[in-house]
Write a structure and sequence with these properties.
Elements: E1 2-6, E2 9-12, E3 21-26, E4 29-33, H1 39-50, E5 58-60, H2 66-69, E6 79-83, H3 86-101, H4 105-111, E7 117-119, E8 123-126, E9 131-136, E10 145-149, E11 154-156
Parallel strand pairs: 4-5, 5-6, 6-7
Antiparallel strand pairs: 1-2, 2-3, 3-4, 8-9, 9-10, 10-11
Helix pairs in contact: 3-4
Length: 174
């Protein structure tokens, strides 16, 4: 499930679409990129960090679609970074997700990992030997961001580029 693509940078497999999530480990902490659709996969990421003596206390969401935010029950209480539009995208999507997943909107609202810190523009993290740069990349969703790990030159592209499915690209008025 975990593939080290650069030192301390892991791609995390998923039953939904491989390579959407990730874990970045630096000398002063870790950052999880998205939390999957499935709670057991989000739990596996949190357990992966704990097994390395780290807390699952920091997440960045590439955008607010269900397959990036619904697996985060193990990250409740974490700092959750996302684009300023992500909460609205999540609220808008919940009725559709509920119908698709045959669950109530209330259940999915409680299950979703909601942003606690939002931003526009760019955001940087210094994790101790790992420098992470998050930047807007609208197209798939107006709140879409990419996460670039400078050491190792690894890009977590969310759904800007995916494998195994045809990418869904939308155009939005600026």
């Amino acid at each position: 499930m975990f593939t080290e693509v650069a030192p301390g940078v892991f791609s995390v497999g998923s039953r939904f679409v491989a390579g959407k999530c990730g874990v970045i480990i630096g000398g002063r902490g870790a950052l999880t990129v998205d939390v999957s659709l499935y709670p057991d996969e989000g739990q596996a990421m949190a357990d992966f960090l704990r097994a390395r003596g780290l807390q699952p206390d920091r997440v960045i969401l590439t955008h607010g679609h269900h397959d990036h935010v619904l697996g985060g029950m193990a990250y409740q209480g974490a700092e959750v970074y996302a684009h300023a539009e992500t909460p609205a995208i999540m609220r808008e999507g919940i009725p559709r997700w509920a119908a698709r997943l045959n669950q109530s909107a209330e259940e999915l609202t409680a299950r979703a990992l909601w942003p606690t810190i939002t931003f526009q523009g760019e955001l940087r993290f210094a994790l101790g030997g790992k420098h992470v740069h998050a930047f807007p990349a609208p197209g798939h969703s107006p709140d879409h961001i990419c996460v670039f790990v400078e050491e190792g030159r690894v890009l977590f592209g969310g759904d800007a580029a995916v494998t195994g499915i045809v990418p869904a690209v939308h155009f939005y008025d600026a």
